[in-house]
Amino acid sequence: MKPSRLTRAAVAGAVAAGLVLAGCGDTDLPGGEEQADLSVLATDVPQIQTLKKLTKKHFTAETGIAVDYTVLPENEAREEMNREFATQAGRYDVASVSAYEVPIYADNGWLAPLDSYVKADEDFDQDDVFPNLASSLTGEDGKLYAEPFYGEGSFLMYRKDLFRKDGLTMPPNPTWQQVADLAAQVDGTDGASGICLRGLPGWGQNLAPINTVVNTFGGHWYDMDWNARLTSPEFRKAVGFYVDLLRSHGQPGAERMGVLEILDRFVQGKCAMMYDATSLASSIEADGSAVKGKVGYVPAPTDRTEKAGWLWTWAWGIQQAADDKDAAWEFISWASSKEFQELVGQEVGWTSAPAGNRKSLYENPEYQQAAGAWYRQEYTAATDSADPKDPGVGPRPYDGIGFLSIPEFAVLGTAVSEQIAAAIAGRQSVDTALDKSQDLAQAAAAKYRGE
């Protein structure tokens, strides 16, 4: 049994369990006086900031459609998105949804299908979109519900200059034990932490990398009868490894640092290694980065599996309650197009182009030259990651690599991530964190066991 329905009650519980949203809209309209034609909710990532800068000058100028962006940190964006889509309030026409939300939202009728728009818009070239991403954004009814703004896998980034200084060599396909050994040796060189990893609570924060470690160490969240397995030897070993690595050779205050915080430390030269999303490479190699040209890229570390990287996308979906779905598609067609990638390449720089979603980008000589340090690893990670249906060792009743494809995971994953963050902070042991998490996971799956 692989459930997919997210009930309104479940969303309400997720919202109630979260923090009160403190963000506010960010309009691009002159003087903030005009009424926007489209309202867009998005996560705060560098690619979105680039999109905002180019929207008025190009999209609005060409179409006459003004866009009002609300850009929030990932955890807050998810809370707002759950609240908005569950109630179908219509405040946002378009939102950046992920491979986790799309099947659930689609099954509830909260997203508008895009197939008719794609068919009518030949210039969009759907065949150019990576098939694995399109598949992840397709509902159980076979309809397409979102288009990827960018896609990503995960890989290990390391400071080649620091490794040379310490006489170290990065294996072409490292294991996690090799990474830990290297972190111990390079830790402190030129004041850098041995490795930077996400520690901030959130199912899309510290649990994203932790789940890839769990998978490759042979762990499962549930057995085939939906009994929780968070206290199994494999799960304990994986989480214990991650926590010990962070506490021994990671960045200070790790439990308060998510993807943006560790990226900031890495580009400032404060980390010798970082395991995270392939999409971060463009920021690492951007002008102004202290480590530009000094970084090497290798596949996600493994233990018992051949592959361990995640597959992810932030994609554009239209809320079913949107007033003008045609205008919403015009925005999506522009923001996820080959032409937009070309625009970013020409006006901002090819390293800032949203990547990991289209085949044509990797055939573009200009992108190949600009992203020469990482584009091959990025392409492989985005197209040949671990299999979401079989990402680890042995069978499991759910899909997903960095997340579980069940509606309850949004609340469960956040609660478990908080327990692990407390272990990273030293406020409790890993065993205590997982004992508590086991109880949470067992309760979350009660209905799948028929209880």
From TrEMBL:
Coiled coil: none annotated. Pfam families: SBP_bac_1. InterPro entries: Bact_solute-bd_prot1 (IPR050490), SBP (IPR006059). PROSITE patterns: PROKAR_LIPOPROTEIN. Residues 1-22 form the signal peptide. Keywords: Signal. This is ABC transporter substrate-binding protein.
